[in-house]
C-alpha cells in the first residue's frame, strides 16, 4: 500500500481527528485558521475548536489578489502564478500558527483548504445557456500539502457544481451537522462579503434543510470604503455609516436587481454587487453628489433590508425563528440594529452561544467537510436543487 494511503487509513481510524480549517473570503483581509478536534461523522459529529486566529494579509499580497479578483480582463499568467503563490503563503501561515500553538506538523491530521475565490459564475449571473455553473478558487492544495507535510483536502466547490449545485453556499452541510437542534427552528445567518443563511428545521429532517445567498453583506460597504478612504478597509463600528443619512432614492435603485426577486436557493458575489452596480444606481437616482457618509448609511440599510426581506419571504413575517449570526457583519452595530428592528419576532444570538467563535465558523465548517470526506458521507439531503448529497474536496498528498 502507498504510504500516503496508509497514513490516511490510520487517520480515518482515529477516535478524533485534528483538522486545520482554512477560510479566506471575498473581503481578502486575511486567512482564518481554525484548529479543530473532530470526532464522529454525520449527525454524530462533535467539534472542539482548540485554537483560532486570523492572519492578516500584507498590503502587497492583497493588491496582487485584487488584481485578478472578479475581473473579466484578469491576466492569465498572474492567475496561474497566484494559484501557486496563495498556496505557499497560506502554507507558511499555517506552519507559523500551529507552531505558535505548540503543535508540530506530524500532530496535525488534515488541512481543509477553501482557497481564495477569484471568480464566481453561476448561470444566473453569466446567462449563457451553453455553459454550466462555474466557480474558481485558487491556492493549490498540493502546494500546501508538500510545504506543510500534511494531507490537504481542497477545492470543495467543484463537486457541488458537478452534482448540479452552484458551488455555494456550502454552509448548509456543516450547519446541519453541527448546529441542528430538535424542537428549535434555527437560521444560521452568515454576514460575510455576501450574506447567506441556512435553515435548520425543528424536526431535524435533512431533506428540509436549505441554504441560500441573499445578496450583499459587507462587500459593497467594504469596496466603497477602500476606494474613498485611503488605508481603511472597513467601516469600524459603523462609525462612517452611522454619521450619514439613508438616501431613499439611491436605496430604491439598489433594490431593483433581478437577483433580489429570484427564488431560493441562489448564489451571487462581487461579480454582481460591486462599485459598478453602485455607480449605476447612483446615476439612475441622481445621487452621484451625495455625501460619502450618506452612501455608506444607504449601503448598510440596503444589506439589512435584503437580509430581512429574504428571511420574511422564506418564513413569513409572523415566524419566530432563532437566528444565530456569524461573519464580519457581527461587528457592525448599525447593521445588527436594523436586522433586529426588521425581524422583531426573531431571537438573535451569535454562534459563540453554540460554542463556536462567530469569526471562526466558516473555517470550522470546512474542517467538518474534510472530516465528512474521510469518514462521513451518509447524510441524505434529498434530491433538491442546490443541496446535492455528495462528498466534496480533492485529497492532496504531501509526498
Indicate the topology.
Blueprint: H1 3-13, E1 17-24, E2 30-39, E3 46-56, H2 59-66, H3 76-100, E4 110-121, H4 123-126, E5 134-138, H5 141-148, E6 151-154, H6 157-162, H7 171-179, E7 186-191, E8 194-200, E9 210-216, H8 219-228, H9 239-242, H10 248-254, H11 258-261, H12 275-285, H13 292-315, E10 322-326, H14 333-342, E11 347-350, H15 361-375, E12 394-396
Parallel strand pairs: 1-4, 4-6, 7-10, 10-11
Antiparallel strand pairs: 1-2, 2-3, 4-5, 6-12, 7-8, 8-9
Helix pairs in contact: 3-5, 7-15, 8-13, 10-12, 10-13, 13-14
Structural features, described:
With 399 residues, this protein is of the alpha/beta class. 39% of the residues lie in helices and 21% in strands. The chain has 15 helices and twelve strands. Strands 1, 2, 3, 4, 5, 6 and 12 form a seven-stranded mixed beta sheet that branches. Strand 2 (30-39) and strand 3 form a beta hairpin. The longest helix is centred in the first third of the chain and has 25 residues, at 76-100. The model has no long low-confidence stretch (mean pLDDT 94).
Summarize the structure.
The protein is α/β, with parallel strands linked by helices and 399 residues long. The protein has 15 helices and twelve strands. Strands 1, 2, 3, 4, 5, 6 and 12 form a seven-stranded mixed sheet that branches. A five-stranded mixed sheet has the order 9-8-7-10-11, sandwiched between helices.
